[in-house]
UniProtKB/TrEMBL annotation:
<dbReference type="InterPro" id="IPR001296">
    <property type="entry name" value="Glyco_trans_1"/>
</dbReference>
<dbReference type="InterPro" id="IPR028098">
    <property type="entry name" value="Glyco_trans_4-like_N"/>
</dbReference>
<dbReference type="Pfam" id="PF13439">
    <property type="entry name" value="Glyco_transf_4"/>
</dbReference>
<keyword id="KW-0808">Transferase</keyword>
<dbReference type="Pfam" id="PF00534">
    <property type="entry name" value="Glycos_transf_1"/>
</dbReference>
<feature type="domain" description="Glycosyltransferase subfamily 4-like N-terminal">
    <location>
        <begin position="14"/>
        <end position="184"/>
    </location>
</feature>
<feature type="domain" description="Glycosyl transferase family 1">
    <location>
        <begin position="194"/>
        <end position="350"/>
    </location>
</feature>
<dbReference type="GO" id="GO:0016757">
    <property type="term" value="F:glycosyltransferase activity"/>
</dbReference>
<protein>
    <submittedName>
        <fullName>Glycosyltransferase involved in cell wall biosynthesis</fullName>
    </submittedName>
</protein>
């Protein structure tokens, strides 16, 4: 099978880029050829004997909007000249003007725009808010076209599949393939908290994510911390430009909230804490949540995103991401009952073992092969119909 992946990154260290990396690696391992049209591609894929990397952005471009437009145009121009070289073209959402056979849906921009927690409004009189809203509107418009023109859509959760269906797209066209996790890198165990400047004696929760915007919803966690005075929270995320250290101070919890900045040692950090809290206002299927499950951590999430699909015995789901009281009650319970944390953590690990990267990649490749087989059958039926018509003419 000759596969083209059109995406911004194929990168072991990136979120969506990691998904692309695992698909490409599995395809190459099965003997398929993979061409990556992207801004960046892991050398392991690009330098493989059956791998190829087409760089679709060689020049620096100042804004994300202009970068997206440039990438969409350059990738489409290349695909128009090389489309016949591939059996399957997969794109990640809307990234190119050229229609793809399969579109992977990691995020539905129009759904985020409609979300009551979407923070960027015309009434804000903020150039930054206008810019963010404009990008979301443009992405939503073109992703709708990308979804409708594809033969198959791969959604990362049932939640996301439901959002896609709101475009009027048949459920038969949508396949759900969950993201995966490396259960060898992320596993239960002990780590030295002092590595992160943290005390060994305190109950400790973990939050990981972008803390410069409101979508990940650290603010509700900080408010909930006011009601759980024995709990400490470690926050991993880039602190520069973040309003949350000041908010923690205003809420009088800054002595128990430890901002450690962005770190590459997430696996070790997860082995250092007691549970993971992530009440995001909108997500499709965050990898960090799977990493927490694989690390044997109880997870606490809001019901406002795709994670609610699969959080059962290994975690707690509360409905309203802004409900600090509900979140505080769950965190208090986890602090007070260590044995419950232990049993939930074991269930979390067990669930993660059924969501490994090998299963994710196999799910994508199965969709590719099913689509190809369907096309072969359609082509065969077409040839038979032509033969029948020719035979009928001969008899006449």
């Amino acid at each position: 099978m000759r596969i083209a992946l059109v995406t911004h990154k194929v990168d072991f260290q990136d979120g969506q880029g990691r998904v692309n990396y695992e698909i490409a690696k599995a395809a190459l391992d099965r003997g398929h050829s993979v061409t990556v049209i992207a801004e960046y591609c892991s050398s392991e894929i690009a330098n493989h004997p059956r791998g190829r990397f087409i760089c679709a952005r060689e020049i620096p471009i100042p804004t994300q909007l202009l970068r997206n437009i440039y990438f969409a145009e350059k990738s489409a121009r290349w695909l128009r000249h090389h489309r016949d070289e591939f059996d399957i073209i997969q794109a990640n959402g809307f990234v190119t003007w050229e229609p793809a056979d399969i579109v992977a849906v990691h995020f539905v921009h129009s759904a985020w725009l409609r979300n009551p927690f979407f923070p960027f409004h015309w009434s804000s009189f903020s150039p930054y808010a206008y810019y963010q809203r404009l990008i979301t509107i443009i992405n939503g418009h073109y992703e709708k076209k990308a979804f409708r023109s594809a033969d198959k859509l791969i959604a990362v959760s049932r939640f996301t599949a439901g959002e896609v269906a709101e475009y009027g797209i048949s459920q038969e066209k949508i396949v759900v393939v969950h993201n995966g996790v490396d259960v060898e890198e992320f596993h239960p165990g002990s780590a030295v908290r002092s590595e992160f400047g943290l005390s060994e004696e305190i109950p400790l929760a973990l939050f990981v994510g972008d803390i410069k915007t409101t979508r990940k919803n650290l603010e509700t966690v900080l408010k909930a911390m006011q009601s759980v005075p024995e709990l400490h929270l470690v926050v991993a995320g880039k602190v520069e430009g973040s309003p949350y250290p000041a908010i923690a101070a205003e809420l009088n919890v800054s002595d128990r909230v430890h901002f450690i900045g962005k770190t590459s040692k997430i696996a070790s950090l997860m082995r250092s804490v007691d549970f993971f809290v992530f009440p995001s206002r909108y997500e499709a299927h965050p990898l960090v949540l799977l990493e927490a499950l694989a690390s044997g951590l109880p997870v606490v999430v809001s019901g406002n995103f795709g994670a609610a699909d699969y959080i059962h015995a290994g975690g707690k789901v509360f409905d309203d991401p802004n409900d600090a009281s509900a979140l505080a009650a769950i965190m208090e319970e986890l602090v007070r009952f260590p044995e419950k944390r232990k049993s939930m953590g074991a269930a979390a690990r067990e669930q993660a073992l059924n969501m490994q990267w090998s299963q994710t990649a196999a799910g994508y490749l199965d969709v590719y092969e099913e689509l190809l087989e369907k096309r072969r059958q359609a082509a065969s039926a077409g040839h038979l119909s032509m033969d029948d018509a020719a035979n009928s003419q001969e008899k006449k």
